[in-house]
Write a structure and sequence with these properties.
heterodimer; A: about 260 residues; mainly alpha; about 0% strand; elongated; B: about 110 residues; three-stranded antiparallel beta sheet; 4 helices; 3 strands; about 10% strand
């Protein structure tokens, strides 16, 4: 029953939730009722003004969350598409070159937008959680642009553009660990989403850092590829989930703190 | 004749049933729903009930009373009673005209 109530927008639940739950307690739910409630919830989301729901204060509160949420949805979705394309399409580097810049910019919007709701209890953590992935994504952007310009030739020092891109990604993923930790610490948005992002990021770092440092050779790295994909998918889903939660599309988004 | 209920689209009929249910006095959600079902003979789902209640409240035709436990009663406002009467008179004229024509043709 709580799940059914969750289908309604938060403003509706604040106004009608208690009495609606009392009504549902008074008679057993039929399949007709469940469908009717789903349609009612859809109507409440589609036409809140028809129901005199005062959404203005909440919308104002959620403006940063919505901008960040869209960024997280787009960024996480595009990175997930990159993983899928990498699997399904041979020699898909060109597609990644087009998708990555958009994904990086979207995730930058997510970082700034969602950090507005992380409160000020852990300023050092919150700042680091934004600064590190911003730096990583910026380096990643330079790397992907470099790979389009100079190809495999040395790009910065003796590093080729691919290495620069990878270093940027490690920074972005390490920053995502901090971002997920900051989100968990202040209990903003969905904790499960932050936990998914944290788990995916840690898994990716555990594999990528030894590979980049040369501790793990190419042959061993090939065995770790499936784990890296799992980590990458969890990373993307974590961002998508956080984005959905911040926009109120998923449970957890209404628990925003505006300290 | 145009009344605010005509603008409620698919919720116009449930809204009318709710107004009729409340014409006998304040009722909470479950009582409104069972009364509306007994009047029309058609089941009214909780989603439809609250979609119509919200619209009637916005139009000022009903108002919520202080909650009793978890249940909140609603009652007709003056505008609601007046609109309900207009709507029922209009339906009465329609019914009378239709029945008269049927009896002539029969």
């Amino acid at each position: 029953m709580k799940l059914l109530l969750r289908l309604y927008p938060a403003a509706w639940r604040e106004r009608y939730g208690e009495e609606f739950a009392a009504l549902l307690d008074e008679r057993p739910l039929s399949p007709f009722d469940v469908l009717d409630i789903a349609f009612g919830a859809f109507d409440a989301r589609l036409r809140p003004r028809a129901l005199a729901l005062d959404l203005a204060p909440r919308r104002k509160r959620f403006m940063h969350g919505r901008i960040g949420g869209i960024g997280a949805l787009v960024g996480g979705g595009l990175l997930l598409a990159m993983i899928g394309i990498g699997f399904l399409v041979p020699d898909s580097g060109a597609a990644a070159a087009y998708l990555y810049p958009v994904a990086a910019i979207a995730l930058l919007a997510a970082l700034f937008g969602l950090s507005a709701h992380q409160g000020r209890r852990n300023p050092a953590l919150v700042w680091a959680a934004v600064a590190l992935p911003v730096a990583g994504l910026a380096v990643g952007l330079i790397g992907i642009i470099g790979s389009a310009v100079v190809g495999d030739r040395p790009f910065i020092g003796d590093q080729n553009a691919w290495s620069v891109w990878m270093f940027g990604n490690v920074g972005a993923v390490a920053g995502s660990v901090l971002f997920a930790a900051a989100t968990l610490a202040v209990r903003v948005f969905s904790r499960a989403a932050a936990g998914t992002l944290l788990a995916g990021s840690v898994l990716l770092l555990t594999i990528a850092v030894p590979v980049l440092a040369g501790v793990i050779g190419d042959e061993e790295a090939a065995y770790l590829a499936p784990l890296a994909v799992v980590g990458g998918v969890a990373f993307c889903l974590g961002w998508i989930w956080l984005g959905a939660a911040s926009m109120g599309l998923f449970p957890g988004g209404r628990e925003v703190e505006t300290t | 004749m145009s009344t605010p209920l005509n603008d409620l689209g698919r919720f116009a009929e449930p809204a009318l049933l709710i107004l009729v249910a409340l014409a006998a006095g304040p009722k909470h959600g479950y009582a409104i729903m069972t009364e509306a079902e007994s009047i029309s003979g058609v089941p009214m789902g909780p989603g439809t009930l609250y979609a119509a209640l919200g619209r009637l409240e916005r139009l000022g035709l009903i108002e919520a009373l202080p909650a009793e436990d978890r249940r909140r009663p609603y009652r007709l406002t003056g505008a609601g009673a007046s609109n309900l009467e207009d709507q029922l008179r209009s339906l009465e004229r329609l019914a009378r005209t239709g029945l008269a024509r049927l009896s002539v043709e029969g």
